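Problem: given the chain below (358 residues), write out its structure.
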Amino acid sequence: MIYFDNAATSPPINIPQLFHNPSSPHALGINAERALRDARKKIAAILGSTDPDEVIFTSGGTESNNLAILGYALANSRQNINLISTPHEHPSILAPIKFAYERNWGTPHTKLVIPTTGPALVSISHVNHETGDINDINAIASDIKKIKPGAAIHIDGAQGFGKESVCLQNIDMYSFSGHKFHGPMGVGGLWIKKGIRLTPLQHGGGQENNMRSGTENVPAIVQMAIAAESACQNFTNNHTHVAQLNSIIRNLKSDLKDVTVNNLGGETSPYILNMSFLGVKGEVLVHALSEKGVYVSMGAACRSRKRAKPALELMGFAPEVAQSAIRFSFSPINTIEEATHAREIIFDLVKQFRKLMK
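Solution.
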């Protein structure tokens, strides 16, 4: 099996055996609470925060994005808040903005143009989940705050955390998701800068500083922190290795005609590579590769259930490019041999399909 769909989910490593309730007063509960506190410290340190209480653990990136967007919209709903994003963001950003608008909690904007009136929340990705384009989030946030100092900046870091460098100097909230960097599924978090006011979306026992009630998933949180620490410690080597994998697959562009690498032309993360083999539908190629034991995707897994225009079209790519696009997403545990073998399989399949279509 050659698994190049790590942007959808990456296989977990280092599973700890912790199952006690951190709110329990006995010794086992205290041990779980200590493990939870240590995990929070590790994540905060990776993000450059000196206050672990700024880290709220959630069930993953989608919940984190919803908490950031809807929690901020609810906290400012009486002030006609402006909800600013771009049309090619992840569904877990676009859907809550739409939800807030339908309930008159805020006004959506699909361009990074900052209105002069009313409070504003800007929600964008660190690394684009389709193409790997890296947003210079600190520079963008700095420019926005020069125009509107009170604007809140939320970053969806699902594809950036543990893979690209993070500077939160001008950022107010940053989401992350464990299973994108070899942590477990069903756990993630939201870093919330002190002073940012959110209305909780989940109520109960007051866990996570009253921001996310419910018994914490301690084993998953600890495992996520271990994976995050490993990604941080091996950051340079991982980046170099993944760039080699990316280059091997990318070179199909010189082996075959009518192949495009799809990005917006700026800096991109080597962890994601989007390519179109024109004349071959992406869906057909993905299924054919699956039968050969090579697993890739056509883009974000969360979009596969939605009948929406492809994200690439929303980014301005031609329909024929979007329809023939597939996404490779790499991991440090992928090997050079896997990339080389996958390249050979893709080359043969594309040649076969194009011959049949003639």
